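We emphasize that the prediction below concerns an isolated chain of 111 residues; any contacts that depend on oligomerization or on bound cofactors are therefore not represented. The input was used exactly as deposited, without trimming of termini.
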Amino acid sequence: MANEYFYMKDVREQAKVPENGILSQTLHNDERTKTILFGFAAGQELSAHTAPFPATLTFLKGEAGVRLGQEHQEAGEGTFIYMTPYLEHGIHAKTDVVMLLTMVKGVAPAK
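Result of the prediction step, given as a token string:
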């Protein structure tokens, strides 16, 4: 069966951080999940927004401030965050940041 798995030995080697701005690269996308690798230049911000799917954030490099609902958390290399559907969230890169986002689309959203 084709596409039984997706393998990348070291996702950090694929990561690109722009000099200014945010760069996103879709690594995997099917009917159940979508995985995106983000590179944030220091000082860049992804403004607060929501998504209708549960999602995880895994920080692979750098330091960021993360808004999760009304709370603010600090994130660094190794930080893992799980978010429920419709949770308002945003990210501010304090240094160059590499982050992996995985959305679980195959779950019926509850509101």
